[in-house]
């Protein structure tokens, strides 16, 4: 863990604050690549993941931007109560949403606060002289964090703003945008779950290959009636041969934790990828949004924080 101090708090848009986090003694913080996030350990004990929203201009600072979510489980509301001088702990940067090392055209699509990992991506692509376009979807300029900065950025000519409540702008024509680049581009998308799923569905219908669709969810979509279909199963630990019962109202992680089997977990909703675990035998019942459709089909990995088993026994590579 890295101790940091809140050095500045800035209102970036309606309901969005940007925090500048600095190292305690002014030492350099670990460097990171575009798309990275940190685990933020809040005073209450809550742990939340937030994208680093700008590339470092000074090595001792990180910046995150957080939307106060009306459906907040407490994390974003607590972030909005933080003040300059408050001490926090963070993890080293992790990156499950990196830019792919390719010379292909990149299409960046941000929905609302999903702009945070996209901004450093655009900064990097611009610096490297690689072709890209950046589509930013929000309700209005007032709710769009960093809109002014993006309008005046070095890549302003690559920006496309889509404001659903602005008649002069309107919603993004997803099919039109994606149909122009299905053969020559990488797609990066971040935002609300329903927004991401809709864009990915349109991309697949237009023939985009799965390996060129890159996404990061901030929250898992609703499971609809799946939750009521939970059934009990057993989880087996490959290294020890131990077998534990997972009841219908328990997660794999809870059972492992109760039996002294350590597994790093953060989001507990299948979003962040922290608990990704190999599967030796059995068929996972995937409930995460971190793994790709291909990885779900292969069944070699599972997120024990939220996913379950379709077979009586699920043997894990632990």
Automatic annotation (TrEMBL):
FAD-binding FR-type domain residues: 1-100
Domain (2Fe-2S ferredoxin-type) ranges: 233-318
Keywords attached to this entry: 2Fe-2S, Flavoprotein, Iron, Iron-sulfur, Metal-binding, Methyltransferase, Oxidoreductase, Transferase
GO biological process entries: methylation
Protein known as: Vanillate O-demethylase ferredoxin subunit
Source organism (scientific name): Marinomonas rhizomae
InterPro entries (UniProt xref): 2Fe-2S_ferredoxin-like_sf, 2Fe-2S_ferredoxin-type, 2Fe2S_fd_BS, Beta-grasp_dom_sf, FAD-bd_FR_type, FNR_nucleotide-bd, MRET, Riboflavin_synthase-like_b-brl
UniProt-recorded Gene Ontology molecular function terms: 2 iron, 2 sulfur cluster binding; metal ion binding; methyltransferase activity; oxidoreductase activity
Pfam families found in the cross-reference section: Fer2 (PF00111)
């Amino acid at each position: 863990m890295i101790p940091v101090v809140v050095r500045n708090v800035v209102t970036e848009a309606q309901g969005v604050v940007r925090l500048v986090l600095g190292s305690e003694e002014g030492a350099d913080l670990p460097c990171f690549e575009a798309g990275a996030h940190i685990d933020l350990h809040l005073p209450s004990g809550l742990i939340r993941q937030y994208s680093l929203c700008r590339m470092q201009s000074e090595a001792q600072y990180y910046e995150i931007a957080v939307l106060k979510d009306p459906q907040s489980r407490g994390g974003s509301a607590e972030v909005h109560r933080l003040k300059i001088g408050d001490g926090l702990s963070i993890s080293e940067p992790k990156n499950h949403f990196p830019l792919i090392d390719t010379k292909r055209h990149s299409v960046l699509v941000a929905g609302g606060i999903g702009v945070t990992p996209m901004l450093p991506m655009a900064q990097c692509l611009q610096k490297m002289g690689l072709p890209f376009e950046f589509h930013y979807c929000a309700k209005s300029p007032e709710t769009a964090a960093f809109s002014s900065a993006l309008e005046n950025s070095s890549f302003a000519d690559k920006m496309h703003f889509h404001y659903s409540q602005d008649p002069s702008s309107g919603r993004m024509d997803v099919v039109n945008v994606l149909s122009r680049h299905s053969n020559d581009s990488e797609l990066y998308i971040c935002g609300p779950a329903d927004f991401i799923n809709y864009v990915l569905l349109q991309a697949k219908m237009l023939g985009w290959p799965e390996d060129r669709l890159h996404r990061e969810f901030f929250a898992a979509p609703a499971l609809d009636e799946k939750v009521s279909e939970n059934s009990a199963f057993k989880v087996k630990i490959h290294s020890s041969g131990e077998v534990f019962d997972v009841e219908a109202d328990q997660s794999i992680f809870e059972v492992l934790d109760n039996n002294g089997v350590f597994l790093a977990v953060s989001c507990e909703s299948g979003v962040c990828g922290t608990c990704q675990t190999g599967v030796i035998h059995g068929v996972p019942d995937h409930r995460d949004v971190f793994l790709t459709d291909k990885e779900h089909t292969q069944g070699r990995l599972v997120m024990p924080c939220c996913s379950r088993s379709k077979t009586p026994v699920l043997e894990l590579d632990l």
